[in-house]
Design goal:
Layout lengths: L5 E5 L3 H12 L3 E5 L7 H4 L3 E2 L1 H7 L7 H9 L1 H8 L3 E2 L3 E4 L2 H13 L5 E4 H7 L9 E5 L3 E3 L1 H14 L3 E3 L11 E4 L15 E10 L8 E4 L2 E4 L5 E4 L3 E2 L8 H14 L9 E9 L6 E4 L5 E5 L5 H17 L7 H4 L10
Parallel strand pairs: 1-2, 1-10, 2-9, 5-12, 10-18
Antiparallel strand pairs: 3-8, 4-8, 5-7, 6-7, 11-14, 11-15, 11-16, 12-13, 13-14, 17-18
Length: 341
């Protein structure tokens, strides 16, 4: 392909912004379109860059640990390029002895070993944590970021690189050389999008509990401290594409959060919801569509932030003809076609 291609990117979440910046840096003329960028699932997310605990705690992610770790390793470059701030303090698993034993076994399967922490150290790393837990397991390999400031930084970097932004929906390729689809589970722009399943995710934030500390992973929830309050998340509701509050679906997660942090029991919270997209094998789609002049960057399930720089590299390589890296076949959007593989 040629440098200087005219590219439209549909979707201004973490994936779309990262792709737009990578394409602009590759010399493309980029227009980024989204009718409502503030409503992206990326803005609602907790911002975890967590290859280790994702692979340990999520069976769908375990086979992709090498890919997830490679994606995380691209983040320092994007941090430096866009001014995104990464928190590298780590993440801590908290639970009863049997559950923590399972976590430790999962780490060993990945060739890793966590740091065993006594109760006192755990409560120092996560202020307000229940003293009912005797031990915790810390890993330093998992990071996090603040989603809204990160989105703002990516947008500013993209615009400084020459990316034009528009508040509009994209219906087709139009007069662009390429259309990059980074719109989650939205249908219509490429045939491969029909393979995606929407997954509604609800997350709550306790504004009165702002502060520092490490991310906490536990049975039934995670807890992430942030400037706008402690985030407890997140539901996984396959097949749902709405963002309406559903307190019944939230109940188990809220109970799990209160077991971790007893002060949450009667605390007020704000509720947000986003819709992720998941492919049949749990891996994202990054690469050429069967539709002419269309490239996909979608289907990252609950790891959009983690995977963003790696997927952007693949997308930019598709347009420029450069090396797309070792994961291009595993991310090929056309891998679900009959007879593929």
């Amino acid at each position: 392909m040629t440098r200087g291609a005219k590219v439209t990117v549909a979707g201004a979440g973490a994936l779309g912004l990262s792709c737009a910046l990578a394409l602009a840096d590759a010399g493309c003329a980029v227009t980024l379109c989204d009718p409502d960028p503030e409503a992206s699932a990326s803005a609602v997310a907790a911002g975890m860059i967590a290859p280790v605990f994702e692979a340990v705690l999520d069976a769908a992610a375990a086979p992709a640990f090498d890919l997830l770790l490679a994606a995380r390793d691209q983040w320092p470059g994007l941090e430096a390029r866009a001014g995104v701030r990464l928190d590298r303090s780590g993440a801590m698993a908290v639970g009863d002895a049997a559950w923590l034993a399972g976590v430790s076994a999962g780490l060993v399967r990945l060739g890793l070993h966590g740091i065993d922490l006594p109760r006192r150290t755990a409560t120092e790393l996560a202020p307000g944590l229940s003293t009912a837990f005797d031990h915790a397991t810390l890993v330093r390999e998992d990071w996090r970021l603040e989603p809204r400031p990160a989105l703002a930084a990516l947008r500013a970097a993209a615009e400084s690189a020459g990316v034009q932004t528009r508040r509009e929906a994209i219906q087709d390729v139009g007069d662009a050389d390429w259309l990059v689809v980074a719109t989650g589970a939205a249908q219509g722009l490429a045939p491969e999008l029909a393979e995606l399943t929407p997954i509604k995710g609800q997350i709550v934030r306790y504004a009165e509990l702002r502060g520092a500390g490490v991310s906490v992973r536990a049975e039934g929830c995670y807890a992430v401290p942030a400037a706008d309050g402690l985030a407890i998340g997140a539901t996984m509701e396959p097949g749902l594409a709405d963002t309406a509050p559903d307190l019944e679906a939230l109940a188990p997660m809220l109970a799990a959060g209160a077991r971790l942090f007893p002060s949450l029991e009667d605390a007020s919270f704000g509720l947000s919801a986003g819709v992720r997209a998941a492919s049949p094998d749990g891996l994202p789609m990054a690469g050429f569509s069967a539709a002419p002049k269309v490239i996909l960057a979608t289907g990252a399930r609950r790891n959009g932030w983690l995977l963003a720089p790696l997927m952007a590299q693949v997308v930019a390589a598709c347009v420029t003809g450069r090396d797309a890296g070792p994961y291009v076949a595993r991310l090929d959007p056309r891998r679900f076609e009959k007879g593929s593989g």
